[in-house]
Fold:
Amino acid sequence: MRSTVKVKVWFVLAVVALFVVAGCGGEEGGTQGGGGAERKDIRISVVTHGQASDPFWSVVKNGVDQGAEDMGVEVEYNAPQTFDMVKMSQLIDAAVATEPDGLVVSIPDEEALSESIRKATDAGIPVVSINSGGDVSEKLGALTHVGQTEFKAGVGAGERLAQDGVDNALCINQEVGNVALDQRCDGFEQGLGGQVKVVAVDLTNPTDAQAKIETAVQQNPDINGVLALGPTGAEPALKALEESGKLGDIKLATFDLAPSVLKAIRDGDMVFAVDQQQYLQGYLPIVFLTNYAQYGTIPASEVLTGPAFVTQENAQQVINLSKKGIR
Structure:
């Protein structure tokens, strides 16, 4: 799985490099492309369900910003203050009303966001989806999707923990109702081949989240594994296992990266993190939509950025990159 992802990503990055070099020629301010757009005039809107202050989404935002700088285009990033699909749909509607040259969206809830996304495609605005919603992206009219297949990533996480002897686990879901996270838990259960109990926590209240995880561990004495679905779930899970004296006895893993997660993996307190390389999820759509506006070119299928796995063996290398806001 990891080698396949590497091949796909490096191929995409090679194509991106060609796009960047091609766009550096010509007069200052951009080149005239087959689509009739000059880079200095291209404007792209990004609307996600994740706040730029979140350790995961801050890296996505860094990728967006770097893509805008490299392409020489204008980009605006917006997200609701909390996981709020009503607010997110309103942000998409507001972005569509400004008639951007491209729209980047995450799709954590198809039912809640489909009408707003279709308003964009009906208006002729090119859409690229990222992170979540790969299974419905094409149906909603998006040109391509950049991310990972969440169910398969969950399966991979389950198989890895099963190899470590885990057969009874908790799945910590910080956004119940986010289809992508629900798919991670479902895939995890299949990959583990054992029992999985979902524990819902509030990502805005880490103290309460820690208490709920401690309670779940106490009420389920046969638990020998915990999978968090993101750093905001991993951090209270780590504290819960430390407070209950179970750290080490119960194997802990997570989706996605943050400095605290990487340190825990390096120090042996966490087994692994599923890495979907979110920097690319921010960067690549800006490159794709810029070139679509200029030349009418776009990848013909979804671009997989994960899953890859960060373990104790490569954690320090990733820590070094995370200090630069890339991982």
